[in-house]
C-alpha cells in the first residue's frame, strides 16, 4: 500500500517556516514547539488524563447503579453502549480531533485569523451532527438494538435509556466542540475543570433519578439517562462560557463561512470518523456473536468486561489530546522529526499504561466484574473475556495514541487501514471460531489477536516515517 500524499495545506505547512516571529508567539504555542518532549507531554497530559478518567466514570457510575435493577437492565445498558460510545468517540476523538488539529496547525503556521474563524465552523459542524444523532437513534434505536440480539425486558430497558440520552445528543457534541477548540490551543486545564464538575454533579444525580427520593419519582433506567443529559448540559455551558468570554487563544469572531475551513476540519475529522465506526462496528458485531453463542447473560458479562477496554479510550485520550496539539503545531511549523519523536514517545507511554490495566484485569477479573453484579453466567463470561483479551490491551493503547498523533499530522490512512484489519480479524475470526465449535473462548481469542495486529502494525508504520513518504 502506498503512503499518503499530504493534503495541500499540510504539505505546505511541512515545508514552510512558521509565519509568525518567535518574539510575537504566544507562550503556550512556543512551549509546544520548543519544550522538552517528555516533560511537556506529561505536563499537558496529566490533567487531561485525570479528567478523562473522571468522564469515563460516568459510564461506570451508571452501570453500578443500574446493575441493582437486575441482569435485564444491565444487558439493556450494554446494548446502548456501542452507539453512545460511537457518539462520544466521534464528537471528542474524531471530529473533535479534526477541530483541534486544524486549530493547532493554524496557530503553528501563524494563521491566527484562520484559528479564530475555525471556532464558528467547528460549532456548526458539531451542532448539525448532534441533531443528526438524535434523529437517528430516536427513530431507529429499536431496530439497532434488536440487530444486536436485544429482546424482551433487556430491549425495553435499552429503549428507556436510549431515548433519553440521545434526545440530548447535541449537548454532548457542542460540549466536545468547545473542549476541542481549547485543546487545539494547548489548553488542557479548562476542559478538565468543566468535565470534572459535570461528573461531580452526576454522582448524586444518577441514584436520585434512578431510585427517587421524596418528591423526586423513581425513573429506573431512564433516570440514568436523564442524569447524563443534565451533566452534559452543565459541562457544555461551562466550556461555552470559557470560549466565548475570551479564555481561549482561538476565539469566535464574526466571519464569512468558508468551504476551505470546513474542509480543514473534515479532511481529518471525517477520515477519523471512519476509524471510529470501525471500532464501534467491531464491538457491535462481536456483541452479536456473543449473544448468538451465550444469550442475554453472556451479553451482560461481555458488555461489563469490555467496559474496561473502553475505559482505556479516555485514559489514552488524556495523552491523545496533547498529541494532537503537539504534533499538529510542530507539523504546521515544519518540525517533522520532532513531531515524529513526540508521537512515538506518547505511543510508548500509552502502551505501558494500557498493558498494566490489561494484565491486572486478566489476573483479577472478578475484582472488576464483581462491582457490577454477582450473576454466575455474567461473571463467567466477563472473566473469560478479560483473561484472554486483557493482556493485549497494551497494543490497543499504542494504536489509539498513534491514531491521535496521526490526526495532528493530518495523515490518517494508516490508522484507518490497521483499524480495518482489526475489524476483519475480530469478526471473521469470531465467526470462524463459532463455526469450529470453539464457542466464546474462540471469539475472545480472535479479539485479542486483532488488537495485537492493530497496534503492532501501526507502530511499525509510523515509527518508519510513513507520514512523510510521497506516493510512489
Topology readout:
Layout: H1 8-15, H2 27-34, H3 37-67, H4 71-108, H5 112-147, H6 152-167, H7 169-184, H8 189-211, H9 221-244, H10 259-332, H11 336-363, H12 365-369, H13 376-389, H14 393-409, H15 413-435, H16 439-463
Organism: Siccirubricoccus soli
Region (Disordered): 1-25
Transmembrane segments: 73-96, 117-140, 160-182, 189-211, 223-244, 265-291, 311-331, 343-364, 384-405, 412-438, 444-468
Number of helices: 16
Structural class assignment: mainly alpha
N-to-C SSE string, H for helix and E for strand: HHHHHHHHHHHHHHHH
Low-confidence blocks of residues = 1-23
Largest β-sheet summary: none
Tell me the β content: under 5%
Q: Total strand count, please?
A: 0
Helix percent reads over 70%
Shape: globular
Overall pLDDT level: 82
Q: Measure the end-to-end span.
A: 10 Å
Number of discrete domains:
1
Organism: Siccirubricoccus soli
Main location: membrane
Transmembrane segments: 73-96, 117-140, 160-182, 189-211, 223-244, 265-291, 311-331, 343-364, 384-405, 412-438, 444-468
Region (Disordered): 1-25
